[in-house]
Amino acid sequence: MSDTTAATEQLADLSATTLLRFATAGSVDDGKSTLVGRLLHDSKSVLTDQLEAVERVSASRGADAPDLALLTDGLRAEREQGITIDVAYRYFATARRRFILADTPGHVQYTRNMVTGASTADLAVVLVDARNGVIEQTRRHAAVAALLRVPHVVLAVNKMDLVAYEEQVFATIAEEFTAYARELGVPEVTAIPISALAGDNVVEPSSNMDWYGGPTVLEHLETVPVSHDLTSCHARLPVQYVIRPQTPEHPDYRGYAGQIAAGTFRVGESVTVLPSGRTSKITGIDLLGKAVDVAWTPQSITLLLEDDIDISRGDLIVPSGDTPPTTQDIEATVCHVADTPLDVGQRVLLKHTTRTVKAIVKEIPSRLTLDDLSQHPEPGRLVANDIGRVKVRTAEPLALDAYADSRRTGSFLLIDPADGTTLAAGMAGDAFATAPAHAHPGETPAVADDEGWDF
Length: 455
Description:
It contains eight helices and 25 strands. The chain has helices spanning about 5-15, 30-40, 50-60, 70-80, 110-120, 135-145, 165-185, 215-225, and strands spanning about 20-25, 90-95, 95-105, 125-130, 150-160, 190-195, 235-240, 240-245, 255-260, 265, 270-275, 280-285, 290, 295, 300-305, 315-320, 325-335, 340-345, 345-350, 355-370, 375, 380, 385-400, 410-415, 420-430. Strand 5, helix 7 and strand 6 form a beta-alpha-beta unit. Helix 5 packs parallel to helix 6 (about 135-145) and helix 6 crosses helix 7.
């Protein structure tokens, strides 16, 4: 068999495997870098020259074995040099599955970066030092995973070698974390005792913990059920661009291009354009230069409609029988990610899918206290890494799904209009899965000011 044929067959095998996006989180010195390095090393996902470089540096430091944490320390050095890297992404594959790993910083001041890494994740790995147990940063990571509706959470109780591989230590930590996660509404927690440094239960089962009969970290990552079938979700197409070539070949062509956020669109289907509410029918779908009868997420397509409707970037095309509510009053949970605070009365830009509108922060009803999940009422402002509820009034109506129904069309960003800095990442609707339902807020009178923000 030729090398070309073998490579082709390998690519075919990889394309047939499923893809798992997962994020790692943990406090400083919990061993997250070592865990990532161990996963890459023991799954044979490290290039030879990378491993040789790690071995050389480790030997120069007097280490007896390669320090696998050095596989990720290069990016940390870049960060110290002033290069902004919010999340480091790693790509690797086994015979059973392909992986995209979002490696998020562990320091408390970088908790906000977990929002970036976990926002598209199917699974989150939360590390805990067996000697320290569940600490505030652990609770913060669990809360972020719950807010972002990450379907699966793995609790990796690391450094079991430093507590003599005691089963009771692991059981106590697992029970405390699982109870906390259950309060947050996390649907599934899998606790695994590991030693990333020694390799126990990371890729290979540990002979030091024969009392544990569950999967290793890699085995769980390879087998956890992950559904990427978003075709059954609410169909949503945020319009990115209106295509009008006006050439002799296409004198009347008018297409609405964008990436399908969720669901499926078919020729002949009745659709509604939001926020205008105008309706029409799909007469054609262009995909990669060819006409198709059906398209689904996450394909990038161009829709052709039966009627000439005033549609522009930022509009949302949805099935006529499945339209989200439009409103100018949004209540949501946000994670504040900027160094500057978010204050009541502050003017911001709100970016939802491809639409950006002016907005005013009308109220900050509460800030979440992570120790006991209580709500601190009326804090007045949110600062970096705070998680809280906000009420925002927008200049124009927006069509938002609840974040619990659609992570793509239920999320938004609050942006500083002065310099474009992202202030907060928002999730529309209820905060946690166990929270009581809220009715959609009704319309309120427009609030005018004297600087052009009249709404």
